[in-house]
Amino acid sequence: MLASTFRIRTGHMRIVFFGPNGSGKGTQATLLKSELKVPHISTGDLLRAAVKAGTPLGLRAKVIMEAGKLVSDEMVLGILEERLALPDVVGGFILDGYPRNLVQCAALEELLARLRQPLDIAIKLDVPDAAILARCEQRFALEHRPDDDPAIVRKRLDVYREQTAPVAEHFAQIGKLATVDGVGEVNTVFKRILAVLPRSPA
């Protein structure tokens, strides 16, 4: 009965999507983008694109990155603000890879309030460390990607847990968090994601 009365909203859906590397987050975000007809915004992709395009922020980021340093939260936020000002985002977005910590979380909420684009939901993909390590070990054996090295993956998981757990707790406290089991076939996990999205009257 509920399925016939309510439907998933398309457009005007503002989502923060997070999960550790190897959780399948990128695959699921791509499927969600197609389903909801809203852009998938990855802060990592934005940073690389800004550097490649030679924008003022991109040029500043390039100097920092070439010096082997991390780009500041302030600079990432500036690049994100540029992206969220574009017309295709008016109908909503899927934000991937940001916020990673509570400082970024507060900055994002301030930015979205200023843009009058309040967040609808934060979706956290929950995948046990053992499953992520198994996936990455398999890829490392086949593709030899340095970032899939088990030792590197373990360190990343520790950092993710330390920084992202408080972010998830914050979203839970304001009633915006949905935790989704990320183990299983791609389509099975996708159906779980669709099931937690806000509904509107049909």
Structural overview:
With 202 residues, the protein is of the alpha/beta class. It has one domain (10-41, 90-201): P-loop containing nucleotide triphosphate hydrolases (Rossmann fold). The chain has nine helices and seven strands; from the N terminus they run H-E-E-H-E-H-H-H-E-H-E-H-H-E-H-E. It has helices at residues 2-5, 25-36, 43-53, 56-66, 73-84, 102-115, 129-143, 150-173, 186-196; strands at residues 6-8, 13-18, 40-42, 92-96, 121-126, 177-181, 199-201. The strands form two sheets. Strands 3-4-2-5-6 form a five-stranded parallel β-sheet, with helices on both faces. Helix 5 (73-84) packs parallel to helix 6 (102-115). The N and C termini lie close together (12 Å). 26% of the residues are buried. Residues 1-6 have low confidence and may be disordered.
